[in-house]
Amino acid sequence: MAWFFTDENITSDTYVISGENARHISKSLRMKKGEELTLVTPDNTQCECVLTEITAEYSAVQITEKRPCENEPDVFVTLYQALPKGDKMDYIVQKCVELGISRIVPMLSARCVSRPDAKSIKKKCERWQKIALQAAMQSRRGIIPQVCDCVSFEKAAQMSLESEKQIIFYELGGEKVNKILDKKPKSIAMFIGSEGGFEQSEVDKIIANGGSPATLGKRILRAETAPLAALSIIMFQTDNF
């Protein structure tokens, strides 16, 4: 799965890959001259390439084709995820990136058991961003979804106002997603709780902001299952599955 992202747009027909990507090509993938790979640039251009030179420090490619990358969903979904316990967030980030999330905002809600200090959460966010990169490469995304700094629930509620539609998934009930998304929005904010779910006051806050409480059915899902189910439903309802 030779799919890589560049930090810059490519204007010529040749390009030199350096750093960790180059080492991954030569040492992990053990690719050889003449083999093909794909580069995706920040302007969403998909470049099909042929390797012309490989060293331990860099790889040179000849670009054979450029076209817009069409692998992205046409709805921008932000996950506001209350921090779960342990390493569950690693799994959530990885799978949500595979499913098409555009941005992930870790947050601290009232019932979060996990409350790391500032130094610890900074390291965690850096690790989650690396996981997002790896998942984006594996699933052939057109972007690397951003993992933002951890924020309070109040800050997350404020941030979500930039989305056209806000949905908070609540274990005590709400509307079905297909009713909430009767008209296809361009952007969606989805709120998922930790193991203890949300307090009623938090749900009320999102409703006051114009958002909607939603249900995932009568069964109670685990903290790491709920965001995947919710995102899958959203992608299906917006014709992105």
Automatic annotation (TrEMBL):
Pfam families: Methyltrans_RNA (PF04452), PUA_4 (PF20260). Residues 17-58 form the Ribosomal RNA small subunit methyltransferase E PUA-like domain. CDD domains: RsmE-like. Keywords: Cytoplasm, Methyltransferase, rRNA processing, S-adenosyl-L-methionine, Transferase. The keyword Thylakoid does not apply. It catalyses: uridine(1498) in 16S rRNA + S-adenosyl-L-methionine = N(3)-methyluridine(1498) in 16S rRNA + S-adenosyl-L-homocysteine + H(+). GO terms for molecular function: methyltransferase activity. Belongs to the RNA methyltransferase RsmE family. Specifically methylates the N3 position of the uracil ring of uridine 1498 (m3U1498) in 16S rRNA. Acts on the fully assembled 30S ribosomal subunit. This is Ribosomal RNA small subunit methyltransferase E. It comes from Ruminococcus bromii. The lineage of its organism: Bacteria, Bacillati, Bacillota, Clostridia, Eubacteriales.
